[in-house]
């Protein structure tokens, strides 16, 4: 015979205790605070009674003219035997550790910190209210028989433990210092859109993939971007889990190069060579990158994963400006940089053209795209 659900065993136990009709079952369930430790709603009582009756575990002791709602049910012999057996098993059964909050916590690295803190704070408030409600129901019924005392003791202990765990997790979440390259190097990631500015870029670390061709049509480029983001988020989750160090995944960045820099202003994209990158904190190691690549590769094949590498370099003195608008409209700004600003200030090229994509092109209108245009220079 199929096992009894928690709701079925609860209702069957109350009917075994003494014959009862639906409204009386609702009253007893409410008075004893049964809903504090079972998922049993008022509307489900009659559904459960019907199921138990169809299985021959309970039967009507008489149905008065007022209808089904006042029908009294009593346990059959088979019902009593199954209730005894199921009760013995329930006493020895461990509480399953399947709280939905654990799934939420496992997925939380993908959320902003404030959203995680808000969710945990809301959960803590609900737990405290539930704890107070259980204590109030208990106070109304005291003195209690031994079994009822044990039930309330267990409910309160579980809620108290959950409250303590949530408080500790919330404290850890809010105290964790998350690294964000845009904040750590604010001057490098918040330039003016009006004037060119000279900045000194220190040694920085990235995961990177090299390639060639038009980014709008190249499958190689699309695979590289997918690989970089997959590895970047895997590194973030691993760092938070194993090192207790969290960081915000940085914006996509690109180094663009060609034998003749004029191809950038002419937009001859098929001639472009590129290195696409995402910044990393200085505690990310080669071994961590390799492990992240392997983890991503197990989920989905991507030829670009074999090209992902940890890349550290120093750009030094650079000129940069914020471009707002479509990528193809960068031409005028680059022309000003190459043919006016650099020669007027006695500067020349000293490295790859660097672009930092502050906007998500999938969700941002072309006219509102924000891109940092950076060029390493020397006298």
Automatic annotation (TrEMBL):
<dbReference type="InterPro" id="IPR036388">
    <property type="entry name" value="WH-like_DNA-bd_sf"/>
</dbReference>
<dbReference type="Pfam" id="PF06445">
    <property type="entry name" value="GyrI-like"/>
</dbReference>
<feature type="domain" description="GyrI-like small molecule binding">
    <location>
        <begin position="197"/>
        <end position="377"/>
    </location>
</feature>
<dbReference type="InterPro" id="IPR029442">
    <property type="entry name" value="GyrI-like"/>
</dbReference>
<dbReference type="InterPro" id="IPR036390">
    <property type="entry name" value="WH_DNA-bd_sf"/>
</dbReference>
<protein>
    <submittedName>
        <fullName>GyrI-like domain-containing protein</fullName>
    </submittedName>
</protein>
<dbReference type="InterPro" id="IPR005149">
    <property type="entry name" value="Tscrpt_reg_PadR_N"/>
</dbReference>
<dbReference type="InterPro" id="IPR011256">
    <property type="entry name" value="Reg_factor_effector_dom_sf"/>
</dbReference>
<feature type="domain" description="Transcription regulator PadR N-terminal">
    <location>
        <begin position="11"/>
        <end position="81"/>
    </location>
</feature>
<dbReference type="Pfam" id="PF03551">
    <property type="entry name" value="PadR"/>
</dbReference>
């Amino acid at each position: 015979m199929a096992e009894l659900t928690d709701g079925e065993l609860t209702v069957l136990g109350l009917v075994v205790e003494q014959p009862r009709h639906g409204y009386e079952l609702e009253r007893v369930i409410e008075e004893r605070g049964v809903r504090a430790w079972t998922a049993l709603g008022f509307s489900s009582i009659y559904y459960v009674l019907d199921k138990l009756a169809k299985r021959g575990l309970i039967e009507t002791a008489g149905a008065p003219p007022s209808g089904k709602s006042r029908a009294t049910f009593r346990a059959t012999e088979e019902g009593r035997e199954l209730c005894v057996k199921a009760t013995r098993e329930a006493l020895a059964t461990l509480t399953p550790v399947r709280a939905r909050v654990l799934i939420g916590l496992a997925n939380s690295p993908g959320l902003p910190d404030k959203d995680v803190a808000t969710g945990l704070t809301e959960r803590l408030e609900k737990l405290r209210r539930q704890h107070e409600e259980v204590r109030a129901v208990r106070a109304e019924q005291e003195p209690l028989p031994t079994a009822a005392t044990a039930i309330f003791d267990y409910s309160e202990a579980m809620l108290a433990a959950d409250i303590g765990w949530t408080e500790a997790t919330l404290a850890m979440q809010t105290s964790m210092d998350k690294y964000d390259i845009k904040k750590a190097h604010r001057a490098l990631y918040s330039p003016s859109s009006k004037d060119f500015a000279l900045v000194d870029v220190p040694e920085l670390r990235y995961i990177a993939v090299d390639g060639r061709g038009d980014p709008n049509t190249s499958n190689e480029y699309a695979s590289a971007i997918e690989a970089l983001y997959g590895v970047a988020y895997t590194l973030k989750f691993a760092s938070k889990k194993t090192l207790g160090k969290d960081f915000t995944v940085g914006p996509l960045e690109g180094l663009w190069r060609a034998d003749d820099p004029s191809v950038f202003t002419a937009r001859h994209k098929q001639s472009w060579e590129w290195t696409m990158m995402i910044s990393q904190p200085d505690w990310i190691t080669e071994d961590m990158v390799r492990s992240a690549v392997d983890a991503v590769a197990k989920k989905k094949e991507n030829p670009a994963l074999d090209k992902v590498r940890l890349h550290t370099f120093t750009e030094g003195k650079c000129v940069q400006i914020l471009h707002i608008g479509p990528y193809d409209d960068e031409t005028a700004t680059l022309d000003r940089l190459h043919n006016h600003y650099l020669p007027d200030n006695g500067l020349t090229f000293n490295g790859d053209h660097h672009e930092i994509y502050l906007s998500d092109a999938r969700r941002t209108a072309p006219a509102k795209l924000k891109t940092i245009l950076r060029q390493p220079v020397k006298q």
